[in-house]
Structure prediction request, 486 residues.
Amino acid sequence: MAVNGTPPPPPSLPAHPDPATDAVLGSGLLHELAHAFGGPFHFLLPHRFDANLAAFRAALADAGVDGRVYYAKKANKAAAWIERCAAAGAGVDVASTGELREALGHGVRGENIVVTGPAKSEELLRVAALQGALTAVDSLDELDRLTAAPRAGGAPPPRLLLRVLPPAQPGSRFGLDGAELEEALAHCARAGDAVRMEGFGFHLSGYAVQPRADLAGHLVDLCLKARVMGLRADRISIGGGFAVDYAAAGDWHSFLATQHPGHYHARRRFTPADFYPYHSPVAGADALRAVLAAVPAGGRDSLGSRLRETGTLLLMEPGRALLDRAGSSVFRIQGVKDRDGYAILTVDGTSLSLSEQWFNSEFLPDPVLVPPAGRAGGTRRTGGTGVHPACAGGATCLESDLLTWRKIPFPVRPSVGDLLVYPNTAGYQMDSNESPFHDLPLPPKVVFDATDDATDDATDDSPVDTGDGTTRGGRPRWRLDRRPAC
Ligand SMILES: Cc1ncc(COP(=O)(O)O)c(C=O)c1O
Prediction:
């Protein structure tokens, strides 16, 4: 509502407070790194990945369900995550030969890899089979190609799952429909020892719990049917799609209720349906708990009970949820221009390093302004008093290259040389769409590692690892995710 003719400021959407990210932001190191790299960069907090993975495993253990977690590698290309998977004995979901090579090259065992994606190349099918990876077969011709591939003498048969076209999402281009499944099952039964048919899988769009439990229940029934045909069929994969909760419920709902084209550069129009659900009451490993506790349609027992009773292993492929709060993206402001009551910032990178824009949407959690002298007075949450709205554009000649169309209500006026830190960007934002457009370098990734010798009772004054990637009494320790090529 306008007070004394002054329109209310554009709404903000602060990300959930995060001490580990705040520690990095407050360290002063980000400006040094921006100077060193001379362009945008991302920072990663692998201990967060470890914690998210542990939470998924705890959800399985608490439900008494035997299961395996495969990190969906497409969500972020960094080496750090697959190094963590290798160290923890977790799996990786890959969808290309490049991703498969990366996973194997960082020590993930072939048997811990699941290969997804449509119409896989001959090379991908061949290497997957040779490495003992599990291939999620997406079509009948792929099944033919996988089973017909020549095998070295004594090599084990190819391991496969049959990916199911979700009946509730018939428009999906992935998976086998009912008739194709029948044919695929008959094919596997005929093939005998030449294939190892381990079960069924799906990946659903959206984040709802019940449809996942419903389809998982159906897949358990399919496993029982396949076992009668002499097939192994002892596991199902429920894919990914575990939501991430970026922001508080109140902030999210009031943002959706108030946002309108006047809050965006060029009066760009977004409807609530255009946005990722930045608040989710049930997210991450809690979503897995909810799926396991739900009763699949037509049944009486929870999914967890069905899995236990039928001796069925549960596989899952979370991407975004394993990366929750595990990284942020840092841009330096290199231009500030005033326009009709707001500022247009130009940063030293592009929206290709904040992918949401490329899905006709917007990454909404507020970026944090970090001037060289230290973090600005704060967002609305931390009590900043001023309101200085600004959108953020990329350093390209494209009208549409905006990292944020929204006029973000900054607590102080942004200046050239300030950093803009977008929080919680590891899941799909950092590098899915990155491009060296305009010969701009790809943003490097900086890792803040926690180490095993972290201790709270050190007696000397040397910097001590706090276990969260920062040091007590010292600077964060950092390294590049990948060493520069010689
Ligand atoms: C087959 C498959 N598995 C897993 C995922 C990961 O999904 P999310 O990152 O939402 O968990 C995807 C995402 O597209 C997928 O296609």
